[in-house]
Structures are given as C-alpha cells and as structure tokens.
Amino acid sequence: MVPDMKLLLVEDDPSMQTALRRTLQNRGMEVELCSDGRQALERWKASPPDVVMLDLTLPGMDGLLVLEEARRSGLPTPVLILTARGTVGDRIVGLNAGADDYLPKPFDLDELEARLRALHRRRAAPGRAPATPSVGGLSVDRESGAIHWRDEILELAPREGALLQALLGRAGHAVTKERLFELVFPGEQDVQYEAIEVVVYRLRKKLAHTGVKLVTLRGLGYLLKAGE
Q1: pTM of the model
Q2: For position 202, which CATH number holds?
Q3: Any domain includes 47
Q4: 60 and 154, same domain (yes or no)
Q5: Of the candidates 87, 84, 83, 115, which has an alpha carbon nearest to the alpha carbon of residue 100?
Q6: Based on the domain organization, do 85 and 162 belong to the same domain?
Q7: Cβ(95)–Cβ(142) under 8 Å?
C-alpha cells in the first residue's frame, strides 16, 4: 500500500507511539515518530510532513513552544494537538499558539483518523477557507475558541463551552451522552455520569434568548436545533 499521507507523530509515551503508529499505518498513512520536542522541531523543519500530531507534555521542549516556534519559522503544516489537557482554556491556548485542531485523550481512533484526513484535505486546498459550523447564528471563533451568537460573545463556563463546541462540531447530528461526557469531563474518574445533564440544563438556560434549542433525543443523545 502506498501511503497517502505523511504524518509526524510527536508523542513521548512508548505504548501510545506503538499503538498509534500501527493503527495509522494500517489505515494508509506514513508515520514518523519523535518523542522529544526539540528534535521534533528540527525534523519538522528539515522534512515538512502533511500533518503534525503533537502532544503538549514533551521532554526537551514543551509542545506549545514547539508549535509557536514552528509558526514563527513560517511552517504552515496543519497541527492536531493530542493531549490529556482537555479543558476549554487549554484548547484556546493551543489554538492561539497556531494549532488547527484539538483532540483530548482518551479519544476514538475513527474520530482521530477523520480529523487528520480533514486537516490533510484542507492543506491540499489552501485557497478554500474551512467552514465554521453554525446553528441559528451560533458559531465558534477558530482563532480564540469563543462562541458567538450573531455579534454577541456568549459568557459560558468552561464545561458549558466544551459541550456547545461539541454540539456545533456535529451540527445537525445527535451527539451521544457518552461522547459528550468524555469531552466535557475528560479523564475525570470521580465525576458522576449524570453530571452531564446538569451542564445541559445550565447551557439551555444560557441559550434561551438565542432561540437555539438544545434538544434531547431519547436513546440517541443531544443536538442543536435552530429556532423557527
């Protein structure tokens, strides 16, 4: 099989490296591994890949510093940040540093592949601006991570923002309660599963004036619906 994408995987966990390389190679990608931040930056400059998958906690140089230096050097390669730092604040910092996408651990391999291929397609068509998901006037600012309704920035708690971004990212489709829990409470083992319902309740109240409905689909999950 001829690889259809060259990927630089910057990750210092050996087991994660092995699992991801095997999986992504089986899905048609050429995967180059690097576990040190400084070495990764040197390889990136010497032989730019199609996409970079970057962990944040790295020896040698922190992942955010690697990303910032790469962007200052004019490297345009799309970057997917892959990390255990999954709060909305962390995502905003990563996006402001120049990341194109952000996937917190743990993650679904099918979703990871889909995001990597979306970044690759975007790079292959640089003149085409990526579409911003929007429902009823709600949209996400890709630079800052802020959520707007028309010209108004919504004041949301971090978990409310994470929930709304997840729903906007799947505009028109239901997102399961299980997936939303993973995105809103990443790695939080002590949180009760029902806590997602509290965040849904609070977000509904903050969306009331927008006319956008956060709809519960029994047995399927939640979705956003524009007001009529």
Answers
A1: 0.55
A2: 1.10.10.10
A3: yes
A4: no
A5: 115
A6: no
A7: yes
Q: Does one domain contain both 209 and 107?
A: no
* 168-173-174-178 Cα dihedral, nearest 10 degrees: -70
Domain residues for the domain of 200 are 134-225
Domain count, the chain: 2
Long-range CB contacts for residues 148-152, cutoff 8 Å, separation at least 24? 149/210, 149/212
Q: Are 179 and 219 found together in one domain?
A: yes
- Whose tokens are 């992504």? That residue is 24
How many angstroms separate the CA atoms of 193 and 135, rounded?
27
Residue 206 falls within a domain, yes or no? yes
pLDDT per residue as tens, the chain (228 positions)? 446 789 999 999 999 999 999 999 998 899 999 999 999 999 999 889 999 999 988 898 988 889 888 888 888 889 998 877 555 555 666 666 778 888 887 788 888 898 898 888 876 654 444 445 678 888 877 655 678 887 788 888 888 888 888 888 777 778 888 888 888 887 777 888 788 999 999 999 999 999 899 999 888 889 888 865
